[in-house]
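User: Quick sanity check before I run a bigger batch. Here is a single chain. Can you write out its predicted 3D structure?
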Amino acid sequence: MIRHEKGQSIVEMALLFPLLLMLLMGVVDLGRAYYVIVSLRDAADEGAAYAAIEPMKDNDIRLRAADATGELVVVDPANVSIDKPLLQAGAPVTVTIEYHYDFYMPLVTPLLPEEGITLRGQASHPILRVN
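Assistant: Done. Predicted structure follows.
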């Protein structure tokens, strides 16, 4: 009996390996997406904190928020938007960062309309002073 079942474990592994690999790639993609979301939220918070102190310097706010993401998540300052409904002390200033996220997992990519999704990070702080 044992002679006939010699290659059974190799066949089982060959059948299950693609499934295990796809699960692993999905977990890696979810981990990367979570890291990007946290980085964008922290960078938006950094930009909003700077905007609370210097609300008139839009270019500096965009650069500060884009630089705060770090090396792994590269954000173009053009993707940073600033919303200041009122320019007075106590009024909120909101910084929003958009980032195009591409998946590594090959089976997910054809299901998405643009081969990726747009992730956003947003933070708001009250303006402390107006120069």
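The two ends are 87 Å apart (CA to CA).

User: Great, the batch can go ahead then.
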